[in-house]
């Protein structure tokens, strides 16, 4: 989708410099994707993801 949209796609993360952000930036470099980073604080990112304001996000689930 990101390649088809030609740079209009975006993704969310818990903030600049977090491992979520860096993993997505690494993915961008490896694949040549043009997607925009949208940093969030807290759970509004999930609301925006479900509502379609952001296309994707990397979420880490902690297993206990």
Key terms:
3 strands, single chain, 64 residues, 39% helix, alpha/beta
Entry summary:
By secondary structure, this protein is of the alpha/beta class.
Question: How would you sum up this structure, described in words?
Answer:
- This protein is of the alpha/beta class.
- The protein is 39% helix and 19% strand.
- The protein contains three helices and three strands, in the order αβαβαβ.
- A three-stranded parallel beta sheet has the order 2-1-3, covered by helices on one side.
- The radius of gyration is 12 Å and the shape is globular.
DSSP summary: helix tally: 3
Mean pLDDT: 82
* Helix content bin: 25-40%
Beta-strand content estimate: 15-25%
How many strands, which pairing sense, and closed or not: the largest β-sheet? 3 strands, parallel
Coarse structural class = alpha/beta
Shape designation = globular
Tell how many strands the DSSP assignment holds.
3
User: Which sequence of SSEs, written as H and E, runs from N to C?
Assistant: HEHEHE
- Span from first to last CA? 34 Å
Task: List the topology elements.
Blueprint (H helix, E strand, L loop, with lengths): L1 H4 L3 E5 L5 H13 L3 E5 L4 H8 L4 E2 L7
Parallel strand pairs: 1-2, 1-3
